[in-house]
Design goal:
single chain, about 220 residues, mainly alpha, Arc Repressor Mutant, subunit A, Tetracycline Repressor, domain 2, elongated
Length: about 220
């Protein structure tokens, strides 16, 4: 098998175990067994299970960015719609792994953890995401419309998104406000895809995206 196929098997096996056994209870030995390879082979691709987790989050951000950057229609769309598509792509990618995402958040708050928000790779990931949001701002808004605080908007958007995700993780049962908020993003996206209405910013995700635009434009 080629290296990329083996890497994918390792990641798929790890995510399955992170979700069913829990991140802390999963070992590289168990991941190797699940993937049907030797444990030493896992180490040829990832040093630790934390490396696998970080690879997953890098994939999440990369595919979300690509879903907007590589879509000719979206590149010509209003800024709100681009941001809407970015967030929806992320949530769609993360949704099957709610239990694992919750565990990762706990580790992210530990300064010494490889998954910690201040780790080198986590910071690189944040810079990549924030940089793309800034790119969307630059291509969508005339410079003379920028507010004096517009440079903060991409960072605020990143923090707001993480907060919404954390809220969802702790309150995602049917009928709760958090569950409705996240479900609303999917419903709004599905309506948009079916052509039932254009993007008007009226949904939950739309409101978040409009906040960023409002913060970026001079009053």
């Amino acid at each position: 098998q080629n290296k990329e196929a083996i890497r994918k098997r390792i990641v798929t096996a790890a995510l399955s175990l992170f979700q069913t056994r829990g991140f802390d209870a999963t070992t590289t030995k168990a991941i190797a067994r699940k993937a049907g390879i030797a444990e030493g082979t896992v180490f040829n691709y990832f040093r630790t299970k934390e490396d696998i987790a970080l690879h997953f989050f890098e994939q999440e951000v990369d595919q979300a960015i690509a879903s907007v950057r590589d879509n000719p229609r979206l590149r010509k769309a209003p800024l709100e719609e681009k941001l809407f598509a970015l967030v929806h792509s992320q949530l769609e990618f993360l949704a099957p792994y709610e239990k694992f995402i919750g565990a990762a958040f706990i580790h992210a708050l530990k300064p010494a953890s490889p998954l910690g928000i201040f780790s080198h790779r986590a910071q690189e990931l944040r810079h990549r995401y924030v940089g793309f949001v800034q790119e969307l701002l630059d291509e969508s808004l005339p410079k003379n419309q920028y507010s004096s605080l517009s440079f903060l908007a991409p960072e605020v958007f990143w923090i707001y998104y993480l907060g919404a995700l954390l809220y969802w993780l702790h309150d995602s049962s049917p009928g709760t406000q958090a569950g409705k908020a996240i479900d609303g993003i999917s419903e709004e996206h599905d309506d948009r895809a079916r052509g039932q209405h254009g993007f008007d910013g009226s949904g939950h995700c739309g409101q978040l995206c409009r906040l960023l635009v409002a913060a970026s434009i001079s009053g």
